[in-house]
Amino acid sequence: MDARRRNQYLEAIGVDLWVPRHGAHDGATATDTATATVAPVPRSSGAVAPAVAAHGVLAAEPAIALAAAAPPESLTPEQVAQWDELRAEVAACTRCVLHSSRTQGVLGVGNRQADWLVIGEAPGAEEDRRGEPFVGRAGQLLDAMLKAIGLSRETNVYIANVLKSRPPGNRDPKPDEVAACLPYLMRQIALMQPRLILAVGRIAAQNLLRTDVPLGRLRGQVHHFGELNTPLIVTYHPAYLLRSPGDKRKAWEDLKFARGVFRQLM
Ligand code: SF4
After folding, report:
1. CB-defined site of ligand 1, < 6 Å
2. What is the 174 CA–ligand 1 centroid distance (Å)?
3. Is 201 inside any structural domain?
4. Which residue from 47, 74, 153, 244 has the least number of CB within 10 angstroms?
5. Is 51 exposed, middle or buried (0-12, 13-18, 19+ CB in 10 A)?
6. What local confidence, expressed as pLDDT, does residue 70 receive?
7. C-alpha 171 to ligand 1 mean position (Å)
8. Is the residue at 35 inside a domain?
């Protein structure tokens, strides 16, 4: 991706571009230069396991690169059957009370062999109606954010939620609902074996990491999730960013941090 195109994506996201008067140095773009000035976020305690330096890793990385170049989905018949079975189970699930108010279960969307897995909170009204996670304005913003680092639900990322059914009124998920639904996500992860998980939003991050540490303190570090110890990075939910556009730059910092971590995993 060239700098001009990426800047177009950033403008679409709503991230203001800072352009130095005499141009950026050492090949860094204006956006990268601005990000490198951000102080590392303090690490939280306990359940999190930092593996690499925080935002400082970004200062040394090349300015322009795709996050991942995943091949097209190529599932074996057995894998197709496992995914079909999972989708059917979610569609018929009555494990928690949410089944009674949902229109349909929403399993996920994207490349089921992608290296990147994005996990949100739960379907909203539009997702419940359409059967796909992250649609509507928040979904469009998420797509633009992912596109800025070379990711797309059509090719090289998979998107899912912690809960597969919509909580009424978009209320926060209850602990028993998360406990009932999490095994589906675990099966998705076992089937996919992603290299990196991006948890978007406080609810997803806190439920996945089993912590009540505020989102701001979970950002900027590498956590790990599940039996596969998959690296997990936290950022803001696009719906929050629509309400608080001043934090879009922080989300962009998170995405660049995730991209840098991903490169180290390759
Ligand atoms: S939220 Fe999960 S556990 Fe609850 S009914 Fe939906 S699919 Fe089943």
Report:
1. 90, 93, 95-96, 98-99, 105, 163-165, 177, 180-181
2. 11
3. yes
4. 74
5. middle
6. 64
7. 15
8. no
